[in-house]
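W.,

You were right to be curious about this one. When I first looked at the sequence I had no strong expectations either way, so I just let the prediction run and decided to look at it fresh. Below is the sequence, 1426 residues in total, followed by the output.
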Amino acid sequence: MLESYVTPILMSYVNRYIKNLKPSDLQLSLWGGDVVLSKLELKLDVLEQELKLPFTFLSGHIHELRIHVPWTKLGSEPVVITINTMECILKLKDGIQDDHESCGSNSTNRSTTENTKSSLKPRRIQQAAPTDPDLPPGYVQSLIRRVVNNVNIVINNLILKYVEDDIVLSVNITSAECYTVSELWDRAFMDISATDLVLRKVINFSDCTVCLDKRNASGKIEFYQDPLLYKCSFRTRLHFTYDNLNSKMPSVIKIHTLVDSLKLSITDQQLPMFIRIMQLGIALYFGEIGSFKDGETEDPSCYNKDMLGNIAGAEDETRIDMQFPAQYKGQELYSQQDDEQSQGWVSWAWSLVPAIVSYDDGEEDYLGNDPASTMLQQKAPSLKDPIVSVGFYCTKATVTFKLTEMQAENSYYSPQKVKSKEVLCWEQEGTTIEALMMGEPFFDCQLGFVGCRALCLKGIMGVKDFEENMNRSEAEASFFICGENLSTKGLTYLTNSLFDYRSPENNGTRAEFILDSAHHKETYTEIAGMQRFGAFYMDYLYTTENTSGKGSANQQDFSSGKNEDLGTVQENSTKSLVVGPLDFRLDSSAVHRILKMIVCALEHEYEPYTRLKPEIKEENERILNPEELVSLEEYIPTRHTSITLLKCTCTIFMAEFNLLDYLLPVIMGEKNSSNFMNTTNFQTLRPLPSIQILMDKINLEYSVPMYAEHLVHMVSSLSQPSDNLLHYCYVHCYLKIFGFQAGLTSLDCNGSYCLPVPIIPSFSTAVYGKLLKLPTCWTKRSQIVITEGIFELPNLTIQATRAQTLLLQAIYQSWSHIGNISSSGVNEALMNEVFQTVGVKSKNPLPTLEGSIQNVELKYCSTSLVKCASGTMGSIKICAKAPVDSGKEKLIPLLQGPSDTKDLHSTKWLNESRKPESLLAPDLIAFTIQVPQYMDYCHSSGAVLLCSVQGFAINIDPVLYTWLIYQPQKRTSRHMQQPMIPVPLVTPISKRKEDELSVGSAPLAKQQSYQASEYASSPVKTKTLTESRPLSVPVKAMLNISEGSRSPEEKMKEFIGVVWNAVKSLTVQLDVQSCCVFIPNDSLPSPSTIVSGDIPGTVRSWYHGQTSMPGTLVLCLPQIKIISAGHKCMEPLQEIPFVIPRPILEEGDAFPWTISLHHFSIYTLLGKQMTLCLVEPMGCTSTLAVTSQKLIGTGPDARHSFVVCLHVDLESLEIKCCNPQVQLFYELTDTMNKVWNKIQKRGNLSTSSAYSETMAGHVPSSPVRSSVGTVPPDTSTCSPSADIGTTTEGDSIQAGDESPFSDSVTLEQTTSNIGGSSGRVSLWMQWVLPKITMKLFAPDPENKGTEVCMVSELEDLSASIDVQDVYTKVKCKIESFNIDHYRSRPGEGWQSGHFEGVFLQCKEKPVPWGRVLVSGAMWRCLPFLY
């Protein structure tokens, strides 16, 4: 009867998974129609063996199992299996590596599996092969298929728990029901027919709750966190398509799940655990789970092969069907080929497909198949892989991040309660995750969502910025917006899913699938992905293609770990990610919430699931033969990743509150122990200035070899690997940014932005980098490049008024200076100046500075021996745009490079024709630098610096002073909302720290001055405080005792030691063309007739064409050439890494350096085409030699002794000066002095307001007092002009008992101390100057039209300085010194003045005394003549 066929099927499943069942009792109950089994224990070892998950079951039981079989209506009513309360507890396997060891070789494992199969088969066939002559076999088969296709499974109260470390993850599903449905997805009794070869099922999950809790050391959960997911319901639709009625397996399987609303909640304590669970999923996906024993490498394919074989065996045991193992035989090849890149969970899931979907196909084995026929079937060709489509769809998902705090009850014994507060929320609409696979050769995963946004909620760290009573809009709360809304986009995320009424399956047609990688890439482009989703789209495609067609022949090679197979199977892996238009707003609320999340995530660190394998080169690596090498070169599998961001907008607001000093130390790895308490009333600041950055497109491409380890081992073993093979041994990364632009904007009280003020106009740039995989394998190849980077910037322009830079500075300071933020830096005048109302003219429009650089190319690379960099910069231009009354702007060039400055040292160029700057001009800067990785390495060839700089032209125009001295008015805005209480008010411990760092908030107080007598008895030397110290350094940090006790001499010697280490083996070649500086006393706007920005052209145009040429001082700086000893000149731009003809092997061999300077001159341009020379062109040649010797000393502190020699040969110097030049000098210096005083005054105001309170109030609490017990050091020695490290008199006072000036240190002690502790420095310098001529011109006040000239001449000058530790010796020598005077009358030219023009003479030739004595006016000079 039917019972004899149906009962064994049900019994085999029940008996297989449940312990201690008596088959006879079960069979009797089953024949009665209903079975009720209570308190059942699951066979955990069978579950583990079959599922082959990397988990082990700690427990598993079923409270009640009901089976209802309607024997009388088997053809029209379903069999119902009900499970009431099923609970399983899992944990990660401890000894996963044991499983890998137990895999053994492929052949051994396969034979063992086959033995198991053959031993199981006869027993099962004898037991379950009764035949009934009354029932035709076809009828029985179709009836059993109908029964199995319509089985209803109901699970009430399913509980799954996973425990690991201190994590307890529990999933509770109130009810889950699986049943068969009709075409309209309604419950029905269905079967496949010849006309409709489709089977549909539905699984409904009700009230799914996921909890994530932390357990203590004893395994108990002290307090329960909020559930991750609470009472979420979702439904799954399954759609199976068969090729024909007798198909063993569906040809197409679709499993799609839809969730209407998914609300996740994560607390700060759950976040590290949640990240850990995510890492577990990733590790499982990539098959990385498990640890490695020493000297052993993991072979994931072994894991897969064992798993496949065992599942195949399990299928045989339950169904006695041998068609499927034949299919696994075909799949085994792929799992073996996948030697290093295991598919992990994907392979596992794929291997379960036949087990899940083909329980209806096994009946023919009950109808008399014998072992012989099954063995024949096993050798039959494998079945075609089914197409499997898995999809997850979510209409709306929210993730809420909460901060928790403990609340103790009144009673001491009552348990603690956890109170949570929402601070951050992520909302996402229209989410899709789809996977499509067909066996191992094709796998594709697509992920996308239509729109998302992130919102700030409640308060953070005591700042109640978004509490309900703040009445802030939702637009202000959302700081990240990407994509579109479902209301505007529609249900595109459900396209072609089983929930889409337009999909082929819901319209009775068969779906078409794209299973070809080329066709796939053509169809699923970035544009198509964005059209469907809008916010985010990811497409991951993995395909394998067998090119040889005889994979089984290479089976043994695969399993033995050799790599000859790389040529036969072509694998492709591409990931493309696209992010749609996004708007990211970084204000204080958003930044503090994001950083707080990062801090919470870092609070608990777990051991990583996988350890990096040690990079040890295998000694027994075999060499490839030529054929294998050719096949390897043909195709090397690579993973490609492409990430594209479209239309990014990032807005960085001025900080309204700043508590980063509590968050950043934790993120940077320093544990912050201070207890944080904040009681601040938050009030918004409006208008709120911000920097807005826009980017049209960002594209990042990343490629890495799939089998890096094997590939590198093989290529590194070749004697001459080709460039192509070497290319694939690197990780390559390309970053391209298009249309980057930045500007200033402001948020007003209504939540709208004002029109952005451009700062950086649109530009594009690109970066390329590559990194060698497993560099330890290449140690014998020192020339192989390990890292390489290339940066390209075609052009970059920055433009800003002074008001805009002050606003940028205020925004930066609001973030960089921790503590009290006030709006004193942003007043109404500044805001009005930056954000001018459209159509309203400003009273005093400000000039704009605009700087641009072009054609920047930088390259960096490193090998095991050297690091090198080279680069070029095409040009740089800076100009000022000054508004004029007519409404137009005048362009004033300030800096131009390259500029042809070769002829500018003399005034001839003004009267000669000048060519415009050519577009083919050489690059402004070209350099190459190479530094050895290990400076003390014996084979190091030393460092090399090659550099060439073309000429510069600089115009120090008065418009620059106008730009610099702009100062906004000091009255604050009436409309600007000020915080009522300074933000933040913290605990007193933090308050003191905050006061030390507060900037711009304290009023200008009188600085307290300590007199010297108050602390003269202090034996501690202190370092002078200066105003030039960094603003963020507190006073305490400056008063470092050990720092203060070091003298300037010691610091200088230490500095010389550092410089010596840098240059002792440096080959240098430096060529700097002349730089010409024009200093006019009035603006020199560029006329429209010449090329924009050409400074010499502008000056020449004014000189000739303009009547009122402003007085201009021209300073022509010398052309500089430095070259080290024995070096031959090379091109400054070299292909790196490179070798120089004569490397420096011994330190000091590069010396002496030859330094030559030429064409230094100064002249003035005055009105009416008048040029007057001040310093005639001159130059010099000098030689610098340095030798070093290590002093006798022990330990690492042994110092060097240095001998520095400098010899300078100067050319003759001729100086001319006249009244108009002196007048021009005076005007220029007076203007500069006024500007400098204004800048100094403003600087003093800002620094004194910031530090007056600090110096007056907190110096007594410095470490000097606490550790030594003396009065604080004198701050009266602070001087605005003093540099850091310079000493004033207060430093040199050595305290005595009676007098502060007692001399307690002798000269001998000083010199021995200096020489012993910091090495010795000997300095010898010599200058030789043939002649100095100085000519002073002036009009004769008594005779109109007559000019007087005084000429001074000094000949054969030489000077030398000899500096030793114990003395300094200076020698000067002048051979002759004469002063003569001349007079020029109209038409006569220059003639000697009175007394033959002699004023002072040092010559051997006789002087006519008679004439001299006639004039009584000069007799007083006689004692000074000789």
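Here's what jumped out at me. The chain has 35 helices and 41 strands. And, maybe more interesting for your project: The two ends are 147 Å apart (CA to CA).

Coffee later to discuss?

I.
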